[in-house]
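call fold(seq) -> tokens
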Amino acid sequence: MEHQKLLFIEHDRIRTYHDGVFGEPSAREHKELSSGAIVPLSLLNTQTLKLPDRLSEDELRIQVEIRMFEEGNLNSDEEYTIDYIRHSVTTDDSDLVEVFALSLTKANEYFGASLAKSPSIDRIIPGFMIYGSLYPTLSAQNDLFIYWGEEEAYAAIYQEGHYIAHRSIETLASIAVDTGLDLPKLKNFLHTKGVIEENYLPEELNKYILLQEKIGKNIERIVHTINHKRGLFGLSGIDNCYLDFEGESILGLNSVFEAYGVKGVTFTSLTREGCPLESIHDALCSDALAESKEGMLNLSPYLRKAPWYKRESGKFLGFVGGSLLIVLITSISIGWMISNEESRQTELTAQLDTLKKETSTLAATLKQNNARLHDEQNKSKSLRHEIALYHGAEDTAVLIHDMHAARQQFLLDTTAELGRYRLGAMLMEQNGSKEMNILVVSEYRKRDDIAKLMSGLYARGYQDVQTHEIKLDNNNTTYNSLVKVTR
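ret:
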């Protein structure tokens, strides 16, 4: 599908894009073309929330912003662009809401060089959202996309053409460091030898072992995410796998998936007709950004402003300017009339009557202007009231931040004591910042460590630590104890 020309913005350069071809923009194109950018996952704060499906979009947005500042580690002193994807799930009367927050400070640092040339960016999205634009040409099933780039890498899961999940994986740059290979050599190994041991020379086997281990760990992460989404979305399996890797394949990658329980995987390499191999991913990103529609995920804090004459302030200035022009023209006309009527005393009375009529029109105009001025004063009063409400909300945000810090310390103390005695926990449930229920799991021979855990929490200053429910499971080999901790 052919799209309009786009300004593709990266952190340190700007290019035009149209139908698979990149170019250098002119000064006019910097201002006039629609623009888009991909934001690295490392710059985003993400959180998955479960909220009632009865909420309207406006109610949901308010809940999302409150919960993100309470639970999403957002700094109340910073400005964020927050947007979300609302997923319908099959388990209950709730929606799964995947929330993304982009700090304005981080965005300014990352896009600073490009913003000096083009101060507006119409749409900013994370890279895993681009694959939805491929579905006019792909069969919409349960699909897995894997992008392996030098500075960014991730897997994305789409169900019937709709994004449902993603997972970050190690970049090629990180794998190169861990395996002792430079990037060109690593790419060459993956392109030509893959993860098949027989393809490597004897002197290369050590590198193969390191590479196979790194690839395997990342595939394990992806498979873990697939399994986690099975129950939530009714995901029966993966029908198609697509590899976004400069148009190339990675030999043996399907065997790694099979080793982790995902059978029958066949990878298809993503390409873009008429596009160089090294630019395929950028072209796919640009294609997705070019088909931007209202309602799509957008994390841009740099949206372009409407023309001044379409804004309320512009309309007001136009009205005031028109009124002043009328007054000025009227004043000039009156002066001209007076200067001409000085030599015609006989017509003075008639001219004065005319002047009175025109003055009455101006008085009516002035009355209307006074009414408009009164309306603007009322609007100013409302604005001051909104500012007062904002200050109240800011104080509330500080209170929420303090409560979150207390809950976070509660969780850190509990986790530290569990780790100290190598105890597991099937459940850690916080009731505000004052209470926590912990379902502790230990081997029967280590049950005394639960008492040590309780003593450790007392030593950290907690007011009350009690054991409520004790069970033996798994043929009396596992010792389960419900511990209630009060700050």
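The chain is about 45% helix and 25% strand.
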